[in-house]
Design brief:
By secondary structure, the chain is α/β, with parallel strands linked by helices. The protein has helices at about 10-20, 40-55, 65-85, 95-110, 130-135, 155-160, 185-190, 210-215, 255, 280-320, 350-360, 385-395; strands at about 90, 120-125, 140-145, 165-170, 195-200, 230-235, 245-250, 260-265, 270-275, 325, 335-340, 365, 370-375. It has two domains: about 45-295, 3-Layer(aba) Sandwich (Aspartate Aminotransferase, domain 2), CATH 3.40.640.10; about 295-395, Alpha-Beta Complex (Aspartate Aminotransferase, domain 1), CATH 3.90.1150.10. It is globular, with a radius of gyration of 22 Å. The two termini are about 20 Å apart. About 45% of the residues are buried. The structure holds pyridoxal-5'-phosphate. Pyridoxal-5'-phosphate binds near residues 95, 129, 203 and 234.
Length: about 425
């Protein structure tokens, strides 16, 4: 498209977008399992629309100009610190930025002790944001196979930790299988060697405290674990805020200070910021604050209960279908399921073919290398029976896999 010579009316633009969006993924109906967290709470959604509009044009780059945003951001960080037991941290635009900041902080901490070729040790289930951060920040990533249960292997971690290790990373939980790494064991090994240990709770951070309160078994994973030095948790995932809101947190203020950037070697005055962005939009900060304070503990507990209902229904339904198997034993509300290799009652299920049928029925399951990925939000509690019925039908009657690629967050349009 070339640059338009004349502008178009607002009505025209809105009509075009409305028409085009009719084909976009509809997450409200509970038929999508990634990218959007369907809270199914119209009151919260109305509040989010309103608060976003109020702060639409404000810039949090210099927060002292926008004191309301400054206060909100401070309170979001305070709430996060109290939830996870941190002492300092900042907001960022998302999980990837939080991870970048934690890796940069650890790299600079390692450099300060004389490390010239810093390394990051993680399991191969760690989110790609770590590989991306390593690429951008010139850190060598040491990727380790997991144990058979999909969790990080402490023995392999012990062998991989060395004098150049800048950061040891564990996930709580990892995205592909929804399992929590053995945080206590690995963080203790890192602490023994005086190394930093980051918990990636981007996905689970804002759900796990409520999951635990509901009485679900949750192994220790946050700053209550000695040896955990930093943690990332996204408010725009199970914190139920709209996109652009994450937190990166530290056990020690001194470590957090390595994240802060200050510059006055130019004629434009002192420039200071605590995350990688310059100009920062106001709506994600205001939206995170409004969401957390609107929901409160009772609201988050209520939503966690709905997620648990969905999780119980989905897992029981899938386990009840002959030929399917949940890949691991998930600790939270997401998992992979695939063809059961031990099936004796018939030929193995072609899980790609099942996914094709589910696509045709309007379900949007992401394909992973070993099966299909399910991540559940509160709104999925309304579709348990419909999903299980369609899945059972798809297993009973499907063709060979059409060959859609395994793509994080959805299929590639082959047209
Ligand atoms: C475990 C985990 N870490 C990090 C991220 C990256 O978060 P974002 O996509 O907000 O950058 C994700 C995203 O799903 C994740 O699941």
């Amino acid at each position: 498209m070339s640059f338009p010579s004349t502008g178009r009316s607002a009505d025209d633009i809105l009509a075009e977008v409305a028409q085009e969006r009719a084909d976009d993924l509809d997450w409200r109906g509970g038929r999508a399992f990634s990218l959007v967290y369907n809270v199914d709470d119209p009151e919260l959604e109305a509040l989010q629309h309103e608060i976003a509009a109020i702060f639409l044009h404000e810039n949090a780059l210099n927060p002292f100009r926008y004191r309301t945003l400054l206060r909100m951001e401070g309170e979001v960080i305070d709430m996060a610190c109290s939830l996870f037991g941190a002492s300092a941290g900042s907001m960022s635009s998302g999980g990837t930025e939080s991870i970048f900041l934690a890796v940069q902080t650890a790299r600079d901490h390692a450099r300060a002790r004389g490390v010239t070729a810093p390394e990051l040790v993680c399991a191969e289930t760690a989110h790609p944001a770590f590989a991306k951060a390593c690429k951008y920040l010139d850190v060598r990533q040491v990727l380790l196979p997991t144990r058979a249960d999909g969790r990080a292997d402490p023995e392999r971690f012990a062998a991989a930790m060395g004098p150049d290790t800048a950061l040891v990373v564990v996930s709580s939980p990892c995205y592909p299988f929804g399992v929590i790494d053995p945080v206590e064991e690995i963080a203790a090994m890192a602490a023994e060697r005086d190394l930093l240990c980051h918990v990636d709770a981007c996905l689970g951070g804002y759900l796990l405290p409520w999951w635990e309160r509901l009485g679900e078994p949750v192994p220790p994973w946050d700053f209550r674990v000695e040896g955990v030095t930093s943690l990332s948790a996204d408010i725009h995932k199970y914190g139920y805020a709209y996109k652009g809101a994450s937190t990166v947190l530290y056990r020690d203020e001194d470590l957090y200070r390595r994240q802060i950037f200050m510059y006055d070697s130019w004629p434009g005055g002192l420039y200071a910021s605590s995350s990688s962005a310059g100009t920062r939009p106001g709506p994600p900060i205001a939206g995170a604050w409004a969401t957390m304070t609107h929901l409160g503990e009772d609201g988050y507990l209520r939503l966690a209960e709905r997620v648990r209902t969905a999780m119980r229904g989905f897992t029981a339904g899938i386990e009840g279908i002959d030929g399917l198997r949940i890949t691991s034993d998930p600790d939270l509300s997401l998992f992979e399921f695939g063809s059961d290799p031990d099936r004796t009652s018939g030929p193995p299920v072609d899980i790609g073919g099942v996914a094709d049928v589910m696509d045709d029925k309007g379900w949007n399951l992401d394909r992973q290398q070993g099966g299909l990925h399910v991540m559940l939000s509160p709104g999925h509690d309304k579709v348990v029976d419909a999903f299980v019925t369609d899945l059972a039908d798809a297993v009973a009657d499907h063709d060979a896999d059409r060959g859609d690629e395994h793509v994080y967050g959805g299929v590639v349009d082959r047209a």
